[in-house]
Amino acid sequence: MIINIDRNSSSPIYLQITSQIREMILSGTLPEGYKLPPERKLAEVLEVNRSTVLNAYRELKADGFIGAHIGQGTVVLPVVKNNIQSNDHFQEPLQWRQLFSQNASRMREPLLRDLMELASRDDVISFAAGIADPNLYPLEEIDIIQQELIRGSNKAAFLHNPTEGYYPLRESISQMMRARGVFASPEEILVTSGAQQGLDVIARAFLDPGDIVIVEEPAFFCALQIFRASGARLIGVPMDDAGMRADILESLLTRYKPKLIYTLPTFQNPSGAVMDLERRRQLLDLAWRYQIPILEDDPYGELRYEGNKIPSLKAMDHHGCVLYLSTFSKIMFPGLRIGWLTASKPVIRQLGMVKQMEDLHAGSLAQCIYDEFLRKGLLEQHIKKVNKEYLLRRNAMISAMERFAPDNVSWNKPLGGFYIWCTVPETMIKSRLLMKAAEKKVAFVPGDAFYIDEQVQNQIRLNFSYHPPELIHEGVRRLMEAIEETLLEEKRGSSSKNINMKPIV
Ligand SMILES: Cc1ncc(COP(=O)(O)O)c(C=O)c1O
User: What values do phi and psi take at 114, rounded to 5?
Assistant: First the structure.
């Protein structure tokens, strides 16, 4: 089996592997029952990361070309030919994967979908998704607001609204931003269908293929995916206790001319880290000197459980370098899909034009609901309530870790946000731990997803906002047991042949 990797191609390496194996199967070069090399071996031969081969095999499995059988490894399955009426009229099935644009081919990372699926499963204690607990949602207040909107004379909730957002909501957000130390008029706010769309709008508005985006590492994996999908090149800056390292950033700014710096300075996803004041000043200074916009992603800034507030980069930005992005998904709930971007008027106008091509405007009912919620002063109250509860949950997770974690596992104690960032022994094979955790019905996000080259394999992200303290305790117990057993098995040197390739289930 010969596979050629073109490292200069814009097609991701795992897709190059996928398509070459698929072609060999369809052409009969790899017949039914042919045993594919184990992922680790193929990764060694091709000099790629093991997760790259894992992703390729996962694609081929999803398309029914290969299957993993206990005791046999990964084998080629019989080729199912659709549309066979008779030998005379034989037609190959449409090769959909090959028809997708290069851009679409870069968008096939299934991690987010897996996380959302996991969060909805009753039998799993999932520390994977970053979701607020539904039991804490202010549903009675939302119900009243919704009734008022239905019965009232203002039908804006059921009509089209401007792309930039329902104007009263832009006013309310402008007021809320004032309380966060940011003075932005309603015209300087673009309402988006969630922060995820905000990231996409920014990528479409600013990035051309080949542009460079600087990101802190680790970084929110969806942002990495979105920037990658736009064809940008990502360059990572490591973090220390004070946030993104300014010395390294400066040397990168002089060497490359990046288009954008992406950062999540307050209660970072995944690490929970907070950039300190001095580093914020340095970052703003560098952005101004090198004339590079900063995209500040701030979904968690209000979710502080301890310590003093620290101003956002946007609140400290005297030169207008910062594009600020936030969302109601974490402080309220994700289902209504409302986020917002704050920038200067000309930038907002351009971003609005980009957004218009995506969905015309964010959902009107959702915008009206949030507008009323803010006008009634309910958000502050709600945030106070959830922050008290999340403090208990963070503490519950920390105490469970202290009680159950083996010696070689360490973790941080975030002052806010949704996540604990945990370091496990480097020897541990990620897929083994995922399998073991899946057996014990507990889930987490492997840390490599948050790195550009997925090279760091010994960190995991644990969410503590979703489950009550009792379940957190039990989930941590199961997870630490999974870690201990995986380590023990590795010590005994048991074979890794029959590892199921799906990452989390
Ligand atoms: C840092 C960060 N940015 C953006 C988002 C997306 O939020 P939304 O649900 O508003 O699209 C998330 C959600 O996990 C996030 O953690």
Answer: -60, -40
